[in-house]
Amino acid sequence: MLNKMKPKLQSMQELHDKLLKEINGQSAEVEDLSPTKFAEKTKQLHDLSQITDRYGEVESLIRDLYSLQQMLEDPATNQDQDLLEMTQEEIKSTTEDIIEKEKELLLSMLPTDTADEANAILEIRAGTGGDEAGLFAADVLRMYERFAERQRWKWDEIAKTHDGLGAIKDATIAITGHNVFGQLKFESGVHRVQRVPATETQGRIHTSTITVAIMPQPTDVQVHIADSDVRVDVFRASGSGGQKVNTTDSAIRLTHLPTGIVVAIQDERSNQKNRAKAFTILRAKLFDLEREKLANERRDKRRAQVGSGSRSEKIRTYNYPQNRVTDHRINKTLHELESVLDGESLPEFIQALRVEEQTDMLMAMNDEE
Fold first, then answer.
1. What is the DSSP string of 33-56?
2. For the chain, what is the largest distance between any 2 Cα atoms, rounded to a whole number of angstroms?
3. CATH 3.30.70.1660 applies to domain 114-363
4. Helix (H) or strand (E) holding 340
5. pTM of the entire structure?
6. Distance CA 63, CA 271 (A)
7. Are 147 and 346 in contact (CB under 8 A)?
């Protein structure tokens, strides 16, 4: 695969060298760079260096391997048993190094998703299965909260609707920390549970589902919302069954007219706090909508990546009787249900999904060459 990409790598090396001369003022083609241009070119040079440095290491190792192979063909080497064994061992070691360095090089060439470093909005909604779906939604919400604690992320509950004792109808959480979206982005989709409900007298296994959505949290600069595009409705918050929880018109409903997206928040007693939370969610939804549109366009040009990312796609099953959790996108099963729901074993799925995505992207990149 690397041989097919040599022309591209050589072009990158030439651009790297050109940028280096421009930044050092050694190029006659460019006048003095403005601070903005200098910063842009420095960033571009840094990104290219991640690739060209690894490419240089691979080329150097290939030259070393060629020299070792030449030694192996030398009659003098074959007459010295110690030298022969040492040369054979070095050939084996250098070959392994080349394979590892080529892998690192190829991974460094993959396109990066800038949203990976972003904070995220987590949405969980109970699906089919009645009360059992609401109970499972609460279980999965706790799973992500425990995982967030292990990552030392900040967990901020924006909205939550309870649906019976211990069950939730839906929840929206803002998660802040390092690489939040990059870690959780594969969690979007339908999660299915198979277990015997506490109220089931016949011992029958019931199947219920919930929907999880993970959206990168954009900045105000990334998503600008025109005032004319949003209708803001203010109303009085109420609890379940119409129970008043506020005596002022503090609840906010935002309707984004171009897309029809509606966001309603009534958790805070302050109108301004509810408004701020609602706009945070609306920005995330619009940003996610645009990302999904771009992803669909890319998939039209090459084969799909890990799953479709569709929230209607069943991605994982949690089977209580068999103590089993299966991710259907990569056919990976762990018989550690309690550990997964505690957030401890969740990284095993996250890492496997990331490797699958990288493999798919490498294959797609090879097809494009």
1. PPHHHHHHHHHHHHHHHHHHHHHH
2. 96
3. yes
4. helix 337-341
5. 0.69
6. 68
7. yes
| CA 101 centroid distance within chain | 24
Task: Compute CA 331 distance to the chain's CA centroid, rounded to the nearest angstrom.
Answer: 19
Q: Map residue 10 onto helix, strand or coil.
A: helix
User: How many other CB atoms are found less than 10 A from the CB of residue 80?
Assistant: 12
- Cα angle: 281, vertex 283, 289; to 5 degrees: 100
> Contact at 8 Å (CB) between 345 and 365?
no
Alpha carbons 336 and 346: distance in angstroms, whole number: 10
Which three-class secondary structure state does DSSP give residue 238? strand
- CB-CB contact of 263 with 243 (8 Å): no
Helix (H) or strand (E) holding 125: strand 120-126
Separation CA 16–CA 2 (nearest Å): 19
Q: How many Å apart are CA 313 and CA 300, to the nearest integer?
A: 18
Is residue 83 within 8 A of residue 43, CB to CB? The reply is: no
The residue extents of the domains of the chain are: 6-108, 114-363
* Cα end-to-end distance, the chain, whole Å: 9
User: Given the structure tokens 């979206």, which residue do they identify?
Assistant: 181
> In whole angstroms, what is the distance from residue 173 CA to residue 187 CA?
14
Tens digits of pLDDT across the chain (369 residues): 567 777 888 888 888 888 888 888 777 665 667 787 888 888 888 888 888 998 899 999 999 999 999 998 888 888 888 898 999 999 999 999 998 898 888 888 877 777 888 899 999 999 998 889 999 999 999 999 999 999 999 999 998 988 877 899 999 999 999 989 999 999 999 999 999 987 776 778 999 999 999 999 886 657 788 888 899 988 876 654 444 444 456 788 999 998 999 998 887 778 888 888 888 889 889 888 888 787 666 555 444 434 444 456 799 999 999 999 999 999 999 999 999 999 999 999 999 998 888 888 777 766 655
Give the residue from 169, 185, 179 showing the smallest Cα distance to 124: 169
Q: Give whole-number Cα distances, 343 to 12, 149, 355, in Å.
A: 41, 9, 20
Cβ neighbours of residue 105 under 8 Å, at least 6 residues apart? 2, 51, 54, 55, 57, 58
Q: Give the whole-angstrom CA distance, residue 320 versus residue 128.
A: 18
